[in-house]
Amino acid sequence: MNSSQLDFTRKWFTEYVRQFETADGSLHPMHAIKVPHSLRVCINCRTIAADMDWPDDDITAAEAMGLLHDVGRFPQFKEYGTFADARSIDHGKLACDVIAASTLTAEYSHEDIRDILYGIRDHNKAKLASCTSPRGLAFLKLIRDADKLDIIKLMGDVIRSGDFTLYPELLLGVDPKGPPSPALIEEIARSRKGSYSNVHSLVDMHLIRLAWMFDLNYKPSLRLVLSRGLMEEIRDVIPDTPTIRKLVRETDDYISRQTASPALHLDPIATT
Question: What's this model's pTM, rounded to 2 decimal places?
């Protein structure tokens, strides 16, 4: 993808978002929060891909993927009033439907639209899907990392602001003052993953952010965790109990080992 195609994508995205403005020209808070999120994910895609020395055309295509990855959130919230895929519609697939029906397809090469749609379709799934295209799989890993990195930061910002009423969907309706869930702590300690079914408090939301460190795919993504101080931010807002302290220490150790490795790809399960 070249820079002109990326410029076209930016203009298309701006016009697309305007369709969801209210009569006074504003966006619902849940729509509004997705615009800067998409822009930051776009930047994350470029930063990570550039750190891995991807070809310029691939970096540009990755930027477009980052900008477009959540376009399904807009019609999803307008129609269903929720971001919960389980209660509405798969926003990754919906985004692909929106893009496939747009003028973007005429602007992109066959390879770009194939790999961008593959990444967007499965960016929100619990596990990586298989792909016959090595480039498509690389794009999928990239968008999952770029998205998680911004959500880790975004969730922390919303929680610290205390203004939960504007973004209830981001916090899953949890108890703001509830204790950490023993089931979630045990799950993360055992599998390095956290299930939303075990999330019941804001502390649990922070622990989910901790678990996501093990689900990143590329070393440059973990370098961004370090440079942006995301671990320090999480550490400052979770209880300092022996079990949680152990989880934090193991996460810190994992990040240190992985970022010291010369490999670009990470093994999110390997913790020893």
Answer: 0.92
Element (H, E) at 103: none
Mean local confidence (pLDDT), 21-31? 94
Model confidence at 266: pLDDT above 90 = no
Q: Is 81 helix (H, G, I), strand (E, B) or coil?
A: coil
**Whole-number average pLDDT of the chain:** 91
Reported as type and span, the H/E element at residue 109 is none
Q: Which residues contact 158 (CB under 8 A, 6 or more apart)?
A: 164, 167, 170, 171
User: Which of the following CATH numbers is that of domain 3-145: 1.10.1240.10, 3.90.1720.10, 1.10.3210.10, 1.20.1440.230?
Assistant: 1.10.3210.10
Of the candidates 51, 66, 61, the one whose C-alpha atom is nearest the C-alpha of residue 115 is: 61
pLDDT of residue 79: 97
Domain ranges for the chain: 3-145, 174-260
Dihedral pair phi/psi, residue 231, rounded to 5°: -65, -40
Neighbours of 247 (CB within 10 A): 18
**CA separation (Å) from 109 to 46, 131, 134?**
19, 19, 17
The pair of structure tokens assigned to 107 is 């602007």
- Spatial CB neighbours of 46, under 8 Å, sequence gap ≥ 6: 59, 62, 63, 66
160 and 152 in contact (C-beta within 8 Å)? no
Terminal CA-to-CA distance of the chain, rounded, Å?
Answer: 40
C-alpha span between 187 and 259 (Å, rounded): 24
